[in-house]
Amino acid sequence: MPDNIIFAAPNMYVLRNWIATGLADKCKNILGLVPVFISSFKDEKFNSNDGSNYVNYCFPASMGKWQELPEGFSKCLFYLYYLRIRTFALEVENGSLQMMQFSRRRDVIHYLCSMIKYLFPRGSQRRIRIRSLIDSINPYHEKCAQLLEMVNPKCVVVGSPGFQFLDQLVIIESRRQHIPVHCVVNSWDNMTSRGPMIRRPDSLMVWNEYMKEQASVIHQYPGLNIKVVGTLQFSQYSHEITEEETNAMFSKLGLLNGSPYLLYLTGQHLPEYEAEDVDVLLRTLEHTKFSETPLVVRIHSQANNLPFKQLRHKNLLLDCPPKFIASGENGFRLDFKEIRMMAALLKNAAVVFASWGTTALLEAAIFDRPIIQLRWMKAFQRKYKEQAEKVMDYQKYLHLIPFDETRCRLFSDFPENLEKDINTLFNNNDAFQNNRKEAVLRLATPPLEDAPNRVIKIIADTLN
Questions:
Q1: Can you tell me the distance from the alpha carbon of 267 to that of 463, in angstroms, rounded to the nearest whole number?
Q2: 90: domain range?
Q3: Residues with Cβ within 8 Å of residue 340, at least 6 apart in sequence
Q4: Half-sphere exposure of 232 (CA within 13 A, CB side)
C-alpha cells in the first residue's frame, strides 16, 4: 500500500492551491506520497496538471441553517468558534469588515467577550491556559476519524488553522491520531481578517515576513514553527506567457490580438458600489487619451455580476471567471488554464484600476502594470451610501498597510483629476516600477516559482 498525504479543500480557492500550482504532483513525484483529498465537493477524483487522478472523499455540508458547517460538525465547536471570533474582533477590529461589524455590536455577547478580553489579556499566561482548555474540547467526528484511519496518511495539509470548518475538523481528528498537520495559509489577509487561530498545526507556512510577525504577535503561534514560503497561487506566474495563451485571452474578450485595453478589478463584497465607480470611470475616460480604449471589468468569483451587466457603454467589456463554489460538482474550476488566463489578462493591460483591496492588485504588481486605486467614496452622489462607508472602513485594513507603504499604486480621489492622475502615473513610471518590484519582494517572496518547492521541503524535513 502506498504512503499517502491528505489535502483538505473546503472551497475551490484552496483546491486550486493544491492542484493547479503543481503541489499535489510534487508530493507524488518528489516525496513519493500519493495525494488524497477531503473536500465538500462530490467529485470522485480530481485531475492534476500532469494527468494524475487523485481520489476525493466528499464531506457534504449540513442542511438547514447550518449549511456552512460540514455534516456532523459539533454545534458546541461552532459556538466556541463564535465566542472566540467575537473576542478577537475587540482586539483586531481593523482586520476585516466582519471584524469591524462584530466590534461595533452592543449585545450580550459583546459584553461577555469584553469581560473575557479583560480577564484573559492577549499574550498572558491566563490567555494561554484558557486557550488550551478550549482547544481540549474536541467532540469526536466518526466519519473523519474512520477516513484518517483508512487512508493512514504520513501527514495532512490544510489551508487554514481552523478558520475553515472542514480544516478544523480534520486538524482535530489528525491530532487525536497523532498525524502531523501542516497549514499553508491560503490568503494574505488570513492572519488578521479571519479571527483567532482556532487550532494549532505543527507548522504554519505564510506568504511573507509580515504574516509571520502577525502569526507570532497576534496569535502567539511559536515563531520557530512559522515558515515563509511565498504564494502558491502566484507560482505559475513566473513562466513566460505563450502566444497561444495570449490569443486565447483576446479571443475570450472578443478583441483583436494585441488591442490595447484597460482593466478594472472588482472585489468580492460591494458590486453595486463598484458598478457606480465603473460607470463614472467610463464616462471620465472619454475625456482622456483612452477615450476609445475598452475597459475590461474582471468580476470577482464571489461577486454578483448583475450590477455590472446593467451598465451600458460602448467601451465596456465584462470578464466573468468561474463562480465561487464550496460544494457540489466540479470543485476544480480554477484550474491551471484559469490561472494562465488571469496572467495573460494582467500582462497585457495598459492600466489597472480597482476600488477594493483585492489580492489581484498584488498580481498586477507582479506583472508590472501601472495601478490606480479609486478612492471616490465621497467624490459624487452615491446611491449605495452604506457601501461607500464600508470602502472607507477598508482603508484601515491591517494587512494592506505593508502594501500601502510600498507606494506601488497611485490613489485617485476625484474623477475630475483622473487624467492628471494617469499622466502622473506614466510620467513617474520608473519610480512606480521600482515600488511595484518592492511590493512583490516584500509580500509575495520571490522567486515565485519556488513556493511549491519550499512547501515540499518543509514537509520532507518533518517526515525525516
A1: 39
A2: 75-135
A3: 236, 241, 245
A4: 25
**Gap between the Cα atoms of 407 and 370, Å rounded:** 12
Which residues on adjacent β-strands are paired with residue 181? 156
Residue with cell 448583475: 306
Please give the pLDDT value at position 464. 82
Please name the residues in contact with 123: beta carbons below 8 A apart, sequence gap of 6 or more.
220
Q: With left for phi above 0 and alpha for psi between -120 and 50, is residue 291 left, alpha or beta?
A: alpha
Which pLDDT score, from 0 to 100, does residue 64 have? 66
**Angle at the Cα of 95 from the Cα atoms of 185 and 279, rounded to 5 degrees:** 100
Joined grid coordinates for residue 279: 460607470
Whether residue 291 is found in the same domain as residue 404: yes
Q: Tens digits of per-residue pLDDT, 279-338?
A: 999 999 999 999 999 999 999 999 999 999 999 999 999 999 999 988 888 999 989 999
Regarding whether 165 and 27 lie in a shared domain, the answer is: yes
Tell me: do 21 and 49 sit in the same domain: yes
The three-state DSSP-derived secondary structure of the chain is CCCEEEEEECCHHHHHHHHCCCHHHHHHHCCCCEEEEEECECCCEEECCCCCEEEEEECCECCHHHCCCECCCCHHHHHHHHHHHHHHHHHCHHHCHHHHHHHHCCCHHHHHHHHHHHHCCCCCHHHHHHHHHHHCCCCCCHHHHHHHHHHCCCEEEECCCCCCHHHHHHHHHHHHCCCCEEEECCCCCHHHHCCCCCCCCCEEEECCHHHHHHHHHCCCCCHHHEEECCCHHHHHHHCCCCHHHHHHHHHHHCCCCCCCCEEEECCCCCHHHHHHHHHHHHHHHCCCCCCCCCEEEECCCCCCCHHHHCCCCCCEEEECCCCCCCCECCCCCCCHHHHHHHHHHHHCCCCEEECCCCCHHHHHHHCCCCEEEECCCCCCCCCCHHHHHHHHHHCCCHHHHHHHHCCCCEEECCHHHHHHHHHHHHHCHHHHHHHHHHHHHHHCCCCHHHHHHHHHHHHHHHHC
pTM of the predicted model over 0.85: yes
What is the number of domains present in the chain? Answer: 3
Q: Which residue ranges of the chain lie beneath pLDDT 50? A: none
The cell numbers describing 219, all together, are: 496569535
Do 254 and 338 lie in a common domain? yes
**CATH code for the domain in which residue 14 is found:** 3.40.50.2000
Over the stretch 45-87, which tens digit does the pLDDT of each residue have? 999 988 999 999 999 988 666 778 999 999 999 999 999 999 9
Using CA atoms, how far apart are residues 41 and 56, in angstroms rounded to an integer? 8
pLDDT of residue 357: 87
